[in-house]
Amino acid sequence: MTQDFGFTLHNSDGMARRGTVHTGRGDIQTPAFMPVGTVGTVKGLYLDQVKDAGADIILGNTYHLMLRPGAERMDRLGGLHKFIGWDGPILTDSGGFQVMSLSALRKISEEGVTFKSHVDGKLFEMSPERSIEIQGLLGSDIQMQLDECVALPADHDTMKSAMELSLRWAERCKTAFGNQPGKAMFGIVQGGDNVGLREQSAQALVDMDLKGYSIGGLAVGEPQEVMLAMLDVVCPILPTTKPRYLMGVGTPQDLLRSVAHGVDMFDCVMPTRSGRHGLAFTTRGRVNLKNARHAEDTRPLDEGVNCTASNSYSRAYLHHLIRSNEMLGMMLLSWHNIAYYQHLMAGIRDAISNNNFAQFAEETEARWAAGDIDAL
Amino acid sequence: MTQDFGFTLHNSDGMARRGTVHTGRGDIQTPAFMPVGTVGTVKGLYLDQVKDAGADIILGNTYHLMLRPGAERMDRLGGLHKFIGWDGPILTDSGGFQVMSLSALRKISEEGVTFKSHVDGKLFEMSPERSIEIQGLLGSDIQMQLDECVALPADHDTMKSAMELSLRWAERCKTAFGNQPGKAMFGIVQGGDNVGLREQSAQALVDMDLKGYSIGGLAVGEPQEVMLAMLDVVCPILPTTKPRYLMGVGTPQDLLRSVAHGVDMFDCVMPTRSGRHGLAFTTRGRVNLKNARHAEDTRPLDEGVNCTASNSYSRAYLHHLIRSNEMLGMMLLSWHNIAYYQHLMAGIRDAISNNNFAQFAEETEARWAAGDIDAL
């Protein structure tokens, strides 16, 4: 470990923040988008491509990895970094969110969650302590507390009790995590779309003096303006000296606007999942490569992005590959999308450094709205 | 075009031949294995990986490409080479074999074949002349005559009439192809597993003085010894001054043994198809990465192959990716297999050059038979 975990705020431009998260495995320039490597691979990409695109950190999913290959096995294999061949920082979620969304027969109690694996039906128990233990066995640099996340809309009592349980679990996770040089455990702000609950959750977590703060339970079905309104409630409560991570978000526009509301870190499967289905995010908005207009278009997908997938393959070829359901089509569009997300974040970081984030955001949104280049 | 099509025989070692096929788009060192890029992509690989593995030439499938994106469209797009980004030679089949195996409602007459597309049900007619026209529109460097290929076992009359029809189509294809500097049209020896029919087919094609000779209708269900016996019938009839291509073959052992019987060129989907299903061909024989013995094996798949996929990822990770049905697992094993096939062909070429092919073949087969490294 070369350095302890920490956060340096370089500049603020409105609510937007330009910073660096320091970890024992290297720095993360923020605002940052973290590509998702669910089961230990960013789907369809070589990790060299992920790194070259500009990603400082990737994410692994505790739920998937605890089921396969398994936490103790991963530890015996030397940890996730060695297993997948990534020497930069890795963030893991707690497993809780995917227990809720993917497993069968889940049961939540004060003690933790019980669930059946979607892989083989095996029964698992996961307490807050076990979640932290698993994340430790994986070798995660930035770990998440176990929390309970509810889908929106939800009634007040459901949101309140989930938020309160999450706070009690945050305390237990903090104790379980202890002090690990170079690493961090983040608390997760819950409270659904309720201002009071969000305030209460954020304040209680701040009082625990954690190393970073995640904002969970958003982008779970609510309109974007509700998400941004919740950020306006939560971010002013969070300390400026700690990183803020909006979990599971989102579209390029979600990222741009959330940065404007004070968020530092993001993750989402959208660039790779959309890429596998032929949808590209570009400097000129969304482009659906399945569309027949691309069939004889020899121009590259997006010359504005410095990535081989973006500027060295014709739209006609990408169209053909996607229509033919070929792996290479999914590989190229996933690669382009990851590169575009990193391109966007680099632009955001530069703009904040130069105190012209508002103008950058306006121009970026205008370019998206203007749409794709005219058909040939 | 820098040079005309031709073949230089550098050395013979028994029946095994070390040569170079010259084309307008570059040389092909033989014996050569040609990775299959069915619809314009070697499945799961970047073409840089294919080239770096040592492939001089790849194959495209006329049937697939005429259906999607279509021959005239491909021509408008500048041809297959430009479309996919491969500047070396490309060989195309005639489309006939896959009309038989993939399309519905096929009908064969003296004139040609009529069939319904497996993509959209559209009706197509393909004469020998149209097959050559399509291959020209694709921009193929080594084109195949349209032929009729029968599955084995088959009765004598079926094999005979298919062989005779194929000969008449060879004449028509030769005329349609004409003289194209730097390019070639190969005739295809048919005749099933019948010695007399094979002799008759080979001799008639030799009399047409074509630029190269394919051997079709093998590896279609018959035992390997039948295939090798047919090679022993056909190869001595074929001129030593022309390349010989055994279509759709095969396993590494098929290749090694067929070289010993006088074959120069091969193609097969096996390395990529097997790779997608977790099966690796290695210097120590077949390795099934799905097998639980690899789950905690941190050793690389095959240190004997100079390829990142072979020597820089653990078996445990490959096992995990394949078990998890992840694209990266398919990508890595397809890549390794293509690299292993090229590694094998390079070894074969060196051995023939050094007049020790028999010893090389014996040692290679012995290593395969000895099997994989012991489990940890």
Layout of strands and helices, then pairs:
2 copies of one chain form a homodimer.
Chain A: E1 6-13, E2 16-23, E3 26-30, E4 32-35, H1 47-53, E5 58-60, H2 62-67, H3 71-76, H4 80-84, E6 90-92, H5 96-102, E7 104-108, E8 113-116, E9 123-126, H6 128-138, E10 142-144, H7 156-177, E11 184-189, H8 195-207, E12 213-215, H9 224-234, E13 244-246, H10 252-260, E14 265-268, H11 270-276, E15 279-282, E16 285-288, H12 308-311, H13 315-323, H14 327-353, H15 357-370
Parallel strand pairs in A: 4-14, 5-6, 10-11, 11-12, 12-13, 13-14
Antiparallel strand pairs in A: 1-2, 2-3, 7-8, 8-9, 15-16
Helix pairs in contact in A: 1-14, 6-7, 7-8, 10-15, 11-14, 13-14, 14-15
Active site (chains A, B): 93, 267
Region (RNA binding) (chains A, B): 248-254, 272-276
Organism (chains A, B): Ahrensia marina
Describe the overall structure:
Chains A, B: Its EC number is 2.4.2.29. Chains A, B: Homodimer. Within each dimer, one monomer is responsible for RNA recognition and catalysis, while the other monomer binds to the replacement base PreQ1. Chains A, B: Residues 14-368 form the tRNA-guanine(15) transglycosylase-like domain. The structure is a homodimer of 376-residue chains. The longest helix of chain A is centred in the C-terminal third of the chain and has 27 residues, at 327-353. In chain A, helix 10 (252-260) runs antiparallel to helix 15. Chain A has two domains: 6-268, Alpha-Beta Barrel (TIM Barrel), CATH 3.20.20.105; 278-370, no CATH class. The first copy, chain A, contains 15 helices and 16 strands. Chain A is an alpha/beta fold. The model of chain A has no long low-confidence stretch (mean pLDDT 96). The radius of gyration of chain A is 20 Å and the shape is globular. A six-stranded parallel β-sheet of chain A has the order 4-14-13-12-11-10. The interface between A and B is medium-sized, with 34 and 34 residues.
